[in-house]
Structures
1.
Amino acid sequence: MGCEVQTYSFISQKGGAGKSTLARQFSVLSSETETTLLVDRDPQGTTSKWWARRQEIEPTLERPDLLTSEGLDLSRAIEALRGKPGKLFVDTRPAVEEPEAEAARISDLIVVPVRTSSDDLEAIGDTLKILRRLNKRAVIVVNAARNDTRATSARAALSRFPFPVCPHHLADRTIYQDAALEGRGVGEMKGANARDALAELRRVWDWVREEAANHEH
């Protein structure tokens, strides 16, 4: 694969954890400074629909390119970036089966989002067991936390797993849904809520990038 291209896959067995949100938002931040490619491997096409809205609303927006196909050979996506310093973001199905295992195998880092409910915190264990068997590096990001207390409690509960937990979190903000409906990143939205969301998003993304950079092949 080569160290010029960094690949991030977003994997979780549980639907609604935030895989698509993180993949889209991180890709927008990445595309500010480097070549960025999004791959949508979810049959629901959430990321593909977001990208289509992005083109319709404001085609001049800086945007990551998109490859769509549930059965896409991921080596093709990597080849599309070969020779260009850049990042590849892979949005997957709410499952951990062979397509997700393939995404895991080609990844420099797997991002596992989790919400703070007890159901979500319990469900993440099955995802992490599979990733551990694949012997791939993964990090956990707390997503859609209703307040700092819930986020702190979730991080404490997640500390029992043998994967790094991001010390920052994403709050439960309507701006993420608003941005999704407009095909935008939160930094491309207006208002104080957008600024606050962008600040927290950058903290999480900077931490994730550092985790990947510290363990480059």
2.
Amino acid sequence: MNHPVFHNLRSAVSYFGMWVLIMGAHFFIFYFQYKFPFIVSLSDSFIFNGFFSLLGIPLWYVVRYSVPSGKTRVNLLVNHLASLTLIIVIWVSAGYSLLNGLFGTYAAYKDFLSSSVPYRIVSGLFYYLLTGLAYYLVLYNSNLQEKLKEEARLNELLKESELNMLRSQINPHFLFNSLNSISSLTISDPGKAREMVIKLSDFLRYSVSTSTTGFNSLEKEMTNIQRYLEIEKVRFGNKLEFGFKLNGNCKDHKIPAMLLQPLFENAIKHGVYESTEQVRIDMECRFENDCLLIDIVNDFEPGAGARKGAGVGLKNIRERLRLMYKSDTLMKTSVSGNKFHVSLCLPEIKSIENKT
């Protein structure tokens, strides 16, 4: 850590400005109370206080390398006693010698100068304690700020690892199913198998190159979602239909990368898989109150039993939203007849930054 006095111009002005105020009070007492001549009062004030302001600068290094702790209290006390003694001796002797040389012929002041030595020692002790305390407060604040920054970095790493874990729980399931379908299609329909391999390759390339904690435009995300649905359509044929409705400038809105794909996977898993009829998945977005509203609706068969792992994808999405937006109320689900609804409310990125 750099010396706090010379950290910047403001700190230097503050330090020496405080000593100027002390000099002014010192001069006022000597000139108006003790009735010493102007030049004597000014010189006494300037020499003693100015000299201590310079001696107070190296005191920082005593504080900096003598941090209080249970094992070093004795060493800390010895260091400060030695530093205090050295500073007081230099300060009083140098100030006394200089002022005695300048005004030694002025008997009244010379007598006062000799008799005031004990009081100057006490004031030197007071100056030392105040300066040392100020340095310890600066050091404490610096350590606190560094600790807060370190905690913020650790929290960011923790959040990123949690997000990576959440996404890793989803992608293998989709990949496993897709590879199984490709394996089957290589025998029954090699053309569709080839088409599915190309689409899967594009989908995975996007997934791998996208940061889990980053943001992408809704347009890019929907392009990848379309790849995903086209892969699934190769498997399910006319049993699966889908459509998108993006209003206004929704396409340019930034959303968390790979956030929507698990929702569409959930619609496939609990809609198309379980239904004997054609299933349609519709997605619509619009802006409302500085928030991007995304509605995903899919058909499902109410009487069909839930597949193993039902709700895991939705739970992971809620957790991602909580980690990234620091809110638990951004996703709502509902059922209306044979329609399953998922509604997302995604704030502007600048709104997130203001919260953090």
3.
Amino acid sequence: MRNMKATMGWAAALALCTTGSALAQTGLPTSQPKLLQIYREEVKIGHAVAHEKTEAGWPAAFEKAKSPYYYVALASLTGPQEVWFVAPFESHEALGESMKFERGNAALAAELARLQGADAEHLSGLRMVQAVARKELSHGEYPDTAKQRFYAVTTFRVRPGRGEDFAAAVKAYGAAMARASTGGSFRVYEVIAGLPSPTYLVFSSVTSYAGFDKALMNGEAVWKATTEEERMILQKFSTEALIGSDTQRFELNPAMSYVSAEVRASDPDFWMPKKPAVKKSTSVPPQQKTPAAPGSGSR
């Protein structure tokens, strides 16, 4: 029973999926990117608001420089207080071009250096991770990134040499998901730098937090749809190949994300929220005292 619960636990993590459309707005990927560059910033306790204000300077700087390299900021809702800045690329060459763009623009480089110094006041740590897509393991339609508001990211740490067991388990789960017809999807990435190997990241997303309720129900439906053989594959992976899994939930933060003008225009209330108007004070300032006339008895 304990092994079966462990199997269901990691399989349920894959069930935190989205039913979003495959169409995406200009400036964000319309299919699973081949490479992700992830900056995981650990934010000091009590510095979340100040950190967001500082981070808003980065999208402003990139927009001023007309950078074509976009990213989304995912602020943690569970686990450590972190922000993941996730940038999609189609190759290492494209990632290298983005580095050249930043370093080749003197004004942009200077502003980013200033922002890095300011950002350090609010961070307790930083980890940079690169991961490549495992499209053959991903399942379902790619969602409209511009409409996703919440994410679940499950990190799987696998024993060395047991990557094929992970692949077999994910394929078994995907087959069951297809039979259950939940309409869900998830994207699988394998970490190639920045974390111990083998490590896998599974991304899923929803357009509203209520979507996680449906995701949990989908997970139950998928589990019921698994065959005896698939359950054996899942259990074997959980008991023999899996070191541990960790699911965290995130909220997409528009102020810290850098997206195109087209994406912002697609939902201005979300991407460009109006700041609350500052009420002007209507109180009348106290009248100044009139100096006492000579000889009036004033001391």
